[in-house]
Design goal:
By secondary structure, the protein is of the alpha+beta class. Helices cover 46% and strands 17% of the residues. The chain has ten helices and seven strands. Strand 3 and strand 4 form a beta hairpin. Helix 6 crosses helix 8 and helix 7 runs antiparallel to helix 8. The relative contact order is 0.11.
Length: 259
């Protein structure tokens, strides 16, 4: 039975390349045409494959419907939360999870630090979009026209001397983040707070959420926080793999530096 399931599943990658006839399927599987036909008929009955008028087979609508339903029912917060807790237990600092929705970047989860100093951030609260590490990660993944359109509409409040001052600087920042695959906010929103973050990707490689670790200067310096970047990226990668159900290649990046 396991061999039958394996053979049936092996048909799907073949048909993902385009329609194929019975002989092509049999050759790919290394089986007799009668065996391939039985497998195709069963998949056809369940709507997983579809037989065209020219007798070739392609992936069926039911497969796409199931995939879409699965994606819609995935909750990145539920998947990410245990990983965020583990990261918090490892480093002790505040951990955030954020998504981009309706032109805002929102925190959807937060694990508080283990020390008395608390951050004012709250679940459901929009982040400071022009400076926050999670915002940079989410916006950097958008297309160039989308990034430019958003950057030109934003206000650029100078929270501190290290805040992003204008659209040109913001676009340059996003380009850098897009290339290196991680981001920081080193005193851009609050002089005393530093943050380093990494993206969470779906099966298509697109960024679906972003996570970060934040800490005040009185606890760790910016340089000390940046040493956690490999751990933060490993955590984001682990969430990405679980969310997408596949291995996601991580973009290469140089040594830690301010983003």
């Amino acid at each position: 039975m396991s061999q039958t399931v394996d053979r049936a599943l092996s048909i799907l990658p073949l048909l993902a390349e385009g329609p194929a006839n019975l002989e092509q399927v049999a050759v790919r599987l290394g089986v007799h045409k009668s065996t391939a036909l039985r497998l195709l008929r069963t998949l056809h009955e369940h709507g997983i494959v579809y037989r065209q008028p020219d007798q070739r087979y392609r992936l069926g609508a039911r497969l796409f419907a199931l995939a879409q339903q699965a994606v819609e029912n995935l909750d990145v917060r539920d998947i990410a939360h245990p990983h965020l807790v583990a990261l918090n237990e490892s480093c002790g600092h505040t951990v955030h999870l954020a998504v981009y929705e309706e032109n805002e970047v929102l925190y959807i989860d937060k694990v508080e630090s283990r020390y008395p100093v608390r951050m004012y951030s709250r679940i459901g609260k929009p982040v400071a979009i022009t400076v926050a590490a999670v915002a940079k990660l989410l916006l950097a993944d958008l297309s160039d026209p989308e990034r430019r359109g958003i950057a030109e509409k934003l206000d650029y409040p100078l929270y501190t001397s290290r805040s992003t001052p204008n659209a040109a600087a913001f676009l340059a920042e996003l380009a850098k983040v897009r290339e290196q695959g991680w981001a920081t906010d080193l005193g851009g929103h609050e002089e005393s707070i530093n943050c380093v973050g990494a993206p969470i990707r779906g099966a298509d490689g697109r960024v679906v959420a972003a996570m970060s670790v934040s800490a005040p200067n009185v606890v760790v310096t910016a340089d000390e926080l940046l040493t956690l970047l490999p751990l933060v990226r490993r955590t984001a990668d682990a969430i990405s793999r679980e969310y997408s159900g596949t291995a996601i290649p991580r973009p290469s990046a140089g040594p830690a530096q301010e983003a």
